[in-house]
Amino acid sequence: MFALQLNDPITLVALGLVGLVGAGVSLFLLVGLFGARSLVRRELAAYFLSPVAYVVLVVFLAVLGCRFYLTLDQLTASGPRGTEFPMQFLFNLLSAEGESITFSRARLPELLSGVAFWLVYLLIPPLLTMRLFAEERSSGTLEPLMTAPLRDWQVVLSKYVACFGFYLFLWLPTLAYLPVLLGLGAPTWNAVWTPYSILFIGGLLAVAVALLSGLPRLGTRFRLAGLLLFFGGAACAVAGGWLHYHSDEGHVVEMTSAIDPWPVACTYLGLILVGAMLLAIGLLVSSLVRSQLVAALVSVAVSLALLIAGVWRYSLEGGSTWAQVLYSFGVPLHISQDFGRGLIDSRHLVLYVSVALFCLFLTVRSLESRRWR
Asked: Could you read off the pLDDT of 8-24 as tens digits, one per residue?
């Protein structure tokens, strides 16, 4: 888990510089993405009009609902069958850390549902990305797209944002599980006015104003200003909320929970970053081939390699070199054993972010190479 010393001047200066660089890069990408907003809308509409996307959604929620039922059974059980970290059990692959794998009849539903969930989960990114460039190549619409007044990185980023947005949409229904898993109580509102709470509330108000500004028909400049206001407000709300709930004594909103909510936030963070990595890999593969089937198969092979690394690791000694290597690439183990217990390992974050950025860079280079053929 990260431990930032906010009272250290060097840490504050470093965080400020990183924030400024990140804000500049984000502003540049947002402006470019706004110029390609019609392409983003087209790709998002293609997902919501495709029957494949809804089949993926139904199967995904059905398998995850089975895991949720088994998790509730563990939470209400007494004795050794109980679980301390429900998110770890919910996204477990085969066995919790330190347990031996026993394929008993009582554990058969747990083992089968765990493997089924990760198989379905790792199949989702290839199914979402297989058509993004392969369909454009096979139908002959990639050449007109390349002659549009858009840069190659804008095309890649637009398609990536669309598939990533639909990936996040898949997880929205799962938020209904959280009140039950955490045992949340009724929220209480307090009048707490500190610099951090004002930043937090101001960010939320900015997001609300930006969303309301998108309802009427406004000009391009107003829509761009609303987009910048939305992301700027979201950044202020996240930063202000984090500082407010970790530095101030009183809180604007207080809510009691029977279970620590931090593992839940860490788990969703890990799932979002893993999805970003797998979608970037699928997008790269789709830009290299013509057939959607070939793009899906290659992406599935990469995804299954991550699943096999997690399964194979159980057959090795925990301290051996091969076990450590397989653990570094075993995504299911990262989610269940680290993120599911509220632990954020920077090595996992570096892996997901670096692979995603590198694959997006290679996708842009793949499109640029077509201009010189």
From this structure: 566 666 767 776 777 77
